[in-house]
Amino acid sequence: MEGIFTKTIAVRGRGFMFALLLTLVSASAVPGVATAAAEEVFIGVDSVISMPVSTREVGVIEDLPDMPEINLTMLRIDPGWYNMELMPGESDEITVTVTNPNNETVLVDPMIIEDPYSEYIFDTDWITITPASAELEPDDGEEEFTIAVAIPDDADLGYYGAMIAFTDDTKPYPFPEPQPDPSYVNTLNLDIEVWKPPVVQILSDYINDRVESGKWYDYAITLKNTGDYDIDIDPEIVDVRRYGWYDMVPAFGDDAITIDAPSSVPANGTATVTIHLEVPDGAKGRYYGEINLGIDDPSMGRWGDGGGEVGMHFEVWTQPTEPFIKSFVTETDSPITILVESSQHKWFGACRIDGGDEGDCEPYFDLTLEGPEGTAALAPTMITYSGTVSLSGISKYAPPGEMAIDEVYQEGYTSYTEEYVANGTSGNWKLGILSHYVEEFEYTIGIGEAG
Known about the structure:
Blueprint: E1 4-13, E2 16-25, E3 39-43, E4 48-52, E5 76-78, E6 81-86, E7 91-100, E8 106-108, E9 111-114, E10 120-121, E11 127-130, E12 134-136, E13 141-150, E14 158-165, E15 170-171, E16 183-184, E17 187-194, E18 200-203, E19 206-211, E20 216-225, E21 231-232, E22 236-238, E23 257-260, E24 264-265, E25 270-278, E26 285-292, E27 309-316, E28 324-330, E29 336-345, E30 352-355, E31 364-371, E32 374-375, E33 379-391, E34 409-422, E35 427-436, E36 441-447
Parallel strand pairs: 6-17, 10-14, 19-27
Antiparallel strand pairs: 1-2, 3-4, 5-7, 7-13, 8-12, 9-14, 11-13, 14-17, 15-16, 18-20, 20-25, 20-30, 21-24, 22-26, 23-25, 26-27, 28-35, 29-34, 29-36, 31-32, 31-35, 33-34
């Protein structure tokens, strides 16, 4: 039977698998070749297995056409890829060295090739190449070309790609027609991002707070417009279930949150977006959410998501009613000094401006001290407040090195300390500490006079 048998098989090796196209030719299909049985061959890493298979006639092999001879002149292009970041109205240039390693003179005539996969297509008028052409001497003759890029004032923000081909040498693609655009070999790939700094800046872009069930809280997000025209905003809560780690039963629904905001941020001015939270009675657990501020500022996409997003994290907690107890023993009749300290980063709840706790959310402690002779009197000796303050908060929507809103004090780490002294006698003691509006606290028990 005259014909060929073609089959694609999977070949599996250690840690990999690939497809093998197997073409077997029946003996009579090729003149002058002895008769042989067609076989399907499975080739693995550790073994070769041959199995007889049947053949079927698919036609007589015609004379294969001669493959075209590929004649390419290869040059060295340095650099072969370059990236720029420019704003509308800006310009920049690079120097590209083209070297001829061949033993004959090569004419270099650069041309700009569009990148069909780029977000935006270059206007060729934006690029100037100097010199326009050059002849490279054989045996490492070289020429430096200056590629100057000028972005017009009205250019769209986004990513632009182009290729500078220094010769018209192309290589064929390893698959049949139809083929895409020619694949040039002596090229510089040029990527340019056209951007602008955001006009609207956000302080702050995250709300993180501990709240109690049955109470309400207000938070403020400040927006500053550095531009010369009003910017529209349209805040709304967005679905965060697209994030896998948010797939939990929330402490409450999105309907517990309402947003009050103006319709725009005035030119060279500020605006406040107020978030009001009503924590339902009996709520427990955590809530994660996001607010898309809907800022009509296209340049914001460079630094964040679309119209500017503010993350929200609330943890519903219950004020403890039983104190923490610490037992200790004194060996002598000596004064006892109790030091209790609470510290936290101020970003935890930094945006809160009011709450259903009537504003009484400053930390404090209720202390009791029981000794061998009953309850000891604790005499307060000192209360201290400490913290760190920086000028202006840094927003993720501000360009690197720039603050979000100028001349605004941002409090970071804060600490609150209470100190007490009691007359001590030898024996067993119990210190009780009931904290209020405290994330965590530290305690120190000192026995004896200070040295």
